[in-house]
Design brief:
Keywords: Signal. One of its GO terms (biological process) is carbohydrate metabolic process. The structure is a single chain. The protein is mainly β. The chain has four domains: about 140 residues, Sandwich (Jelly Rolls); about 400 residues, Galactose oxidase/kelch, beta-propeller (Methylamine Dehydrogenase, Chain H); about 100 residues, Immunoglobulin-like, CATH 2.60.40.10; about 70 residues, no CATH class. The protein contains three helices and 59 strands.
């Protein structure tokens, strides 16, 4: 009846993800009668402003369980507890006390009765200010909401506020997120999930006033509707394919050799730091070829860069790319790289996901010998090093290249199905990996799983909703037209599965003879997806085929309406090795493009979303403390009213992949221009590190971000001194997919040396002649040579004696040379 049970995750241990024990459904309690003596017999209605009936527990109930009118018991798990109405109230004669004297697992909570008579009616899209007075002897108490879905019934909604210990009466206030579609009522109360008690009284619930009218737009009509792209006057000096937004607002752009064999042979490896405020670049000495490495921000703001390119493919194509074991950290303060200890294996194109305790876990990529790495790696935040192999759980599975692994709110990892190069993993193409149990459970529903190469996946705003959107993709091996598919999964569901989302909008595509409208099922791969502070997602960039045929299209996806709204398109080609990311001022920066002919687009584009063309922006005038811990209430001041605030984790993006990108809602308590922000107590929702804090007004206009550092959780520390886990609700708790245990230990997985979709018999290593040409190119030498010419490939030397694509029909050692195109 109450949706998912509330339960904390287990304490962090050196080699465990934050993860609860096996889950159970919530059940109502049938407990003996509580303290008698409730005097009033006529139900008290809610006051004109207060939507809570019987807010002070003064009216007796009639259910026989001792609970006041419109209040009921809830909870689960192995614990000893009491519910009682007590004297010494904040006002009136009664208060509600919930106490746990012994707890192994679970919680207890007094909730507004989930009925049409008692549960307050709410409006979709509205927000509500909730308040109560409380006393508490435990740090493990939280204000918890449930919502009634008109189709699915009652279900857990969110935790809004952790209540600090208070010996005397203290007031707690919080503002709900916007009420989701399909919701007609809510229920709420205080959960106690640790030993101790919480006594509450005088509940209030008021609807927030409707938003102010839209202001007059400051741009043209077209810009007001669709935003504006500007190509910056200064070019990016390096061939960067990795973009990391640093905690000082600058951007680290990593190139390594930049996919240039000539630069690799010369030992010329480059990075640059871009300053968005001044528009200037500073080139950084780079110790190793970090081309196609992995990267993630550590909790102290440094950037961990793992592996990279040890060697390019051989000229005859018999040896592929090779990954090295080296690893470095980049310090934003000194702007220098420092070597760490080595990883256990080489990983060219590895994943990198930060965990709730600050550790980093990594999968996939290519080893030193070009085979696929089956070694999982774990960076220990506490020890500041990569752990030895024997300390890391292993499945001995090959996850592919840049597999997108998203941290779930209970500490498990969701492999979304987005990856780079070729086919997906065996099975359904997406899975939930449980590090503690070391098991992988297949998740169904991802359509055309083997055509999601260089698709993008993003944890939708807010992270508390636990929904993931996967969009676009293709296949480098078979080289079909990239698709328009989007698929959405709700990880709160008991047995989550992808469902079809709306198709990507179509734009124009350059097939070599100018831009033409896309037709049929044409979509795009190499797509970028960026979380915006108004709660929408910008998808932009892409191409129709393997390193060819750029697509010019951008749109905004709104999770609330599950719809795309086409907006202005980036005028620059943004295909392979491009990236787009959010800047602290609310704009989006886009860089790169590396087509198959080996050239590089050094132009940089910046998108100004429509929300920045709606007049004056709110401003955060002060942040009382930029060092935050889990479960905190943090005060900021603003220059005018705001409707929401959130933390957005800064980008660390490459190859359409940024698994750590997330938008965490901060429920508000508003007192004029003073706003108290309620920080999640669950580090799996917001892993430790630096975040951009945005304040957003009722029109969706964001402030410029302030930087805050989330660490802890000191307020939730366990008696043993270990960091305690966050307060989460069970979900994805009855998975029905195929469960796989760890396989047999092995050294690697076989991977074709043509994994990048390039035939190395032609040109240098940074030239990519596709192993399979697009379907519309007829299977003749003339057609293929015409296609190569239209995509700006120059003369191509034949490497060795083989000519598998039949491009050197006259045998002179030059592909598509004089006379070749006239031969079949």
């Amino acid at each position: 009846m109450f949706g998912r049970p509330v339960r904390p995750v287990r304490p962090v241990r050196p080699l465990r993800l934050l993860r609860p024990r096996p889950r159970r459904r919530t059940t109502l309690l049938a407990v003996g009668a509580l303290t008698a003596g409730l005097l009033l017999s006529v139900p008290q209605p809610a006051s004109a402003a207060n939507l809570v009936k019987n807010p002070g527990f003064e009216t007796a109930g009639t259910g026989g369980d001792g609970m006041p009118y419109c209040w009921e018991k809830s909870g689960w798990g192995d614990n000893d507890f009491t519910f009682s109405t007590v004297g010494g109230a904040h006002s009136g004669s009664k208060a509600m006390k919930v106490e746990l004297t012994r707890r192994t697992e679970g919680d207890r909570k007094a909730l507004i009765t989930e009925s049409a008579e008692c549960a307050p009616v709410v409006g979709v899209g509205k927000q509500y200010d909730l308040g109560l007075w409380y006393k508490s002897t435990t740090p493990d108490a939280s204000l918890t909401l449930f919502r009634h879905d008109t189709t699915a019934g009652w279900q857990y909604w969110t935790d809004l506020k952790t209540l600090p210990i208070s010996a005397g009466w203290s007031e707690a206030t919080v503002r709900t997120p916007e009420v989701p579609a399909g919701t007609d009522r809510i229920s709420w109360g205080v959960s106690v999930y640790g030993t101790g008690s919480a006594t509450t009284d005088d509940y209030t619930m008021d609807q927030v006033a409707d938003p102010i009218p839209d202001p007059v737009c400051t741009g043209t009509a077209e810009q007001c509707a669709n935003g504006r792209w500007d190509v910056l006057p200064t070019q990016n000096p390096v061939r960067s394919m990795h973009s990391v937004v640093l905690n000082n607002g600058k951007v680290l752009l990593i190139a390594g050799s930049g996919n240039s064999e000539e630069m690799f042979e010369a030992g010329t490896f480059t990075s640059a730091v871009y300053n968005p405020v001044t528009g200037t670049y500073k080139q950084i000495p780079t110790p190793k070829d970090m081309f196609c490495a992995g990267h993630v921000q550590l909790d102290d703001g440094r950037v961990l860069v793992m592996s990279g390119n040890k060697g390019y493919p051989s000229a005859d194509g018999t040896i592929g790319y090779q990954g090295y074991k080296d690893s470095y950290v980049f310090d934003p303060v000194t702007e220098t790289y420092t070597k760490t200890n080595d990883m256990n294996d080489g990983h060219w194109y590895p994943s990198a996901t930060i965990l709730g305790n600050g550790d980093v876990i990594s999968f996939g990529g290519l080893k030193e010998d070009s085979t696929g790495s089956v070694t999982a790696e774990r960076w220990s935040d506490a020890e500041n090093k990569w752990l030895p192999l024997w300390q890391v759980n292993q499945t001995w599975s090959y996850w592919g290249l840049y597999p997108t692994m998203v941290l779930m709110q209970d500490g498990r990892l969701f492999y979304t199905g987005s990856h780079t190069f070729g086919n997906n993993i065996p099975g359904t193409g997406s899975a939930i990996y449980d590090y503690d149990a070391n098991t992988t459970t297949q998740v169904p529903g991802l359509r055309q799983k083997d055509e999601r190469d260089q698709s993008a996946s993003v944890l939708l705003p807010p992270a508390q909703d636990q929904k993931v959107l996967t969009l676009g993709g293709g296949n480098i091996d078979s080289n079909p037209d990239a698709n328009r598919l989007t698929d959405i999964i709700d990880l709160k569901a008991a047995d989550p599965a992808y469902v079809a989302g709306p198709p990507l909008p179509q734009g124009t595509v350059d097939l070599g003879n100018g831009k033409i409208p896309q037709t049929g099922a044409q979509g795009k791969m190499y797509v970028s997806a960026v979380l915006l502070p108004d709660g929408k997602v910008l998808e932009t960039g892409g191409a129709l085929h393997n390193r060819a045929n750029p697509v010019y299209e951008s749109s905004l996806y709104d999770p609330a309406t599950n719809a795309f709204d086409p907006v202005a398109a980036d005028p620059q080609a943004r295909g392979y090795h491009s990236s787009a990311f959010l800047l602290p001022d609310g704009r989006v920066m886009a860089t790169g493009d590396n087509p198959g002919n080996g050239t590089w687009n050094h132009n940089v584009s910046v998108y100004t979303p429509p929300y920045l063309l709606k007049g004056a922006r709110p401003a955060i005038t002060s942040v009382i403390d930029n060092e935050w811990t889990y479960g905190d209430t943090q005060r900021i001041t603003v220059d005018r009213p705001i409707a929401r605030a959130e933390l957005i984790r800064p980008a660390a993006v490459t190859h359409s992949s940024d698994p750590n990108q997330r938008f965490v809602d901060l429920p508000l308590s508003v007192d004029g221009n003073n706003v108290d922000l309620n920080v999640t107590s669950n580090p799996n929702l917001a892993p430790p590190g630096w975040y951009m804090l945005f304040a957003v007004d009722a029109n969706g206009v964001p402030s410029v971000a302030k930087w805050v550092h989330l660490q802890g959780p000191s307020s939730l520390a366990a008696a043993s001194g270990e960091a305690a886990s966050g307060h989460v609700h069970s979900f994805a708790d009855s998975l029905e997919g195929k469960v796989e245990q760890p396989g047999r230990k092995r050294a690697s997985a076989a991977v074709s040396p043509t994994v990048a979709g390039c035939d190395r018999h032609y040109g240098s290593a940074n030239i990519c002649v596709p192993t399979v040409f697009p379907a519309e190119v007829r299977k003749t030498t003339a057609a293929r040579c015409t296609w190569l010419k239209s995509n700006d490939y120059g003369p191509l030397k034949i490497n060795g004696k083989d000519d598998p694509l039949r491009l050197d029909r006259n045998g002179d050692g030059v592909a598509c040379g004089k006379g070749d195109a006239r031969k079949r």
